[in-house]
Amino acid sequence: MNVEQAAKQLEALGSPARLRIYRALVRAGHAGLPVRQLQERVGIPAASTLSHHLQRLVLTGLVSQERQATTLICRAVYPAMDALIGYLAEECCADERCGATGEEAA
Questions:
Q1: What does pTM read for this prediction?
Q2: Per-position b or e across 57-85, b if 16+ CB within 10 A of its CB
Q3: Considering the domain boundaries, does residue 102 fall inside one?
Q4: Which residue among 25, 40, 102, 105 is least packed, with the fewest CB closer than 10 Å?
Q5: 38: domain range?
Q6: Which SUPFAM superfamilies does the entry link to (predicted)?
Q7: The domain spanning residue 27 has which CATH number?
Q8: 75-102 pLDDT, tens digit each
């Protein structure tokens, strides 16, 4: 993952409403949630507002949507989530000297 993609995804998750939406979809698992159910779970009264937030998450690759007859199913894209988490953690403590105590590192 590159820094631009990570920044876009983190920016999309920077909205409290979008973060609630995303967490609800992650919690729902691979089956996802129909839009109406998602709307009820996150408490967004206006369908157009929910649609706007979902579109941002879809554009960044964090959420996918699939139409099943008249129902729109939303799902978290787990490989994208894993990639973002991996990007954030991959260089954890990379500049820290191995085995150094607090005094030795100073």
A1: 0.85
A2: beebbbbeeeeeeeebbbbbbeebbebbe
A3: no
A4: 102
A5: 3-90
A6: Winged helix' DNA-binding domain
A7: 1.10.10.10
A8: 999 999 999 999 999 888 888 876 555 5
